[in-house]
Sequence to fold (298 residues):
Amino acid sequence: MKSGSIDRKRFLQVAGLGLLAGCAGEGASRGGEQGEAGTAAGARRTLAPPLDRIGVQLYTVRSLMADDVAATLDAMAAIGYREVEFAGYFGHTTGEIRGWLDAAGLTAPAAHVGIPELTEPGLDASIEAALAIGHEWLVLPSIGPEMRTADGYREVAGILNAAGVRAAPAGLRIGYHNHGFEFETVEDDAAARTGYSILVEHLDPALVDLEIDFHWSTVAGADALALFAEYPERFPLCHVKDMTADGAMADVGAGVIDWAGLFARSDQAGLRHYFVEHDQPGDPLASVEASYRYLSGM
Fold:
């Protein structure tokens, strides 16, 4: 593990802010038992993610992870996060990763892995790593341009279903994370359909779940609420990623997405884990701090 290359003072500054923000959020939740103000706060939290299910996709802080995984995980916990989603292990062993998670008081319900890790010969190692670290889902984050056809989406569904068959005896599930291209129309037997509809139609819901990325689906013009209605309880995972009016990524709460409206339908969607993400944050720590502060204060 590399040490000393991260600005430790900056870590402590953000961590301190995060602890205060986390306490404020928890206090608002507990306040539901104390008078009218508490009742109002409790009502607001019913339209927000549970505090212990607010997580962060570590791709957001990948530059920090590359320098010092343990310190980065500690910083996420100090901000208030209790869950993380991995996007690579940065050359470390599963034992090291699990030890650092445990030390920080974090769990990692999911990890993003590629098709090579979901097919032979890589799948066995992926399952073994997931069990060692504590993942419940192995999620395919994207597919290449060559697979973005009707037949390609059916092929991807077959790959994910097959991985699900292999993973199920270990108590694991497979997931698919969308970008925007899945909502573009493709020709399928002379009919125009979205790639997403073809993919989901061919996924086995007993084995494979969906991870909705709210930014990418919104940019693509998809209606998340309509997706929840069409595919109820298929979305246990989500990426909480905001956008500006012109489609640029933004910290959660600094954009135009109606989070209260989306979270009000969490039960219909089946949402259980909410991972904050920003693909290109100017300051990764400030970004994840701002997003947590917004979500914990809803």
